[in-house]
Amino acid sequence: MSPCSLAYKNADAKSTTQFLLDLILTYGPPRIVRSDNGTHFTAKVISQLLLALGIQKKEGIAYKPTSQGQVERQNQVIIDMIAPYVAEGEKWTDVLPVVLHAYNTAIHHSTGYTPFYLVHGYEPISIFDIAIIPSNLNHSTIIEIQKLNSIREKLPNILQKAFEKQKCYADRGKKDIDFYVGEKVLVKINVRKDKFADRYEGPYTILKKINPVTYLIEIDKNGKKQAEKKHVQQIKKYRDRSQIQSVYYYN
Fold first, then answer.
1. What are the residue ranges of helices labelled H in 121-229?
2. Is the Cβ–Cβ distance between 39 and 13 less than 8 Å?
3. What b-and-e string marks burial along 129-164, b requiring 16 or more CB atoms within 10 Å of the CB?
4. Least confident of 18-27, 28-37, 233-242
5. Cβ–Cβ under 8 Å, residues 56 and 37
6. Which stretches make up the Integrase catalytic domain (predicted)?
7. How confident is the model over 147-185, as pLDDT tens digits?
8. What confidence score (pLDDT) does residue 127 get?
9. What does residue 130 show for φ and ψ, rounded to 5 degrees?
10. What predicted TM-score, i.e. pTM, was given to this entire model?
């Protein structure tokens, strides 16, 4: 699987439509597009585009990375690869194409091949094979190539650490967690402004156990009740606090 990424200012339906069109015009239409329940994927324009091209649409659980499995693990590896450069003051939009090139031209232990080879059937000439900088280039070009060389020197170690981190994450916390129908629970909410703090709201009621890791929960949104699927890792047990108002936010 060879990841394709582009930097956009907004994660909206318009940007998503353009990104899908770019992919389709480059690689051809896929049989299935699988996404989470983000509004930029559930917009009418996306549904119409996929319908017109005969592409089946499948949706996972909103804000639950593990519901997308391989794709989200891949995304996290790329984020982990970019992070050290951002910490040093680099713009992530500048580093992203180089990181993707490194990821796609690195041999992955799970397959024994590079993602690029699995998609195209041949290995590319890598930018990392450039060893000598021609002396007749202008100064600004030389600076950019030197910057690229600085990035590439660190990438093998960063890529390995990113893979190891994802393996540890996937292996941890596999103990069984079980809830029963009718039980009151707290549900993790997505807080985009603070990625480092988990917050929960509730209590809400378990309506159905769909499978060992997915539950149907009755959610109250602005006074209107609706049923939503939630992964077990998005839920935690509620302990009655009868003296506090009915909706709580927890860190």
1. 139-171
2. yes
3. eeeeeeeeeeeeeeeeeeebeebbeebeebbeebbe
4. 233-242
5. no
6. 1-123
7. 666 666 776 777 777 767 666 655 554 455 789 999 999
8. 66
9. -75, 115
10. 0.55
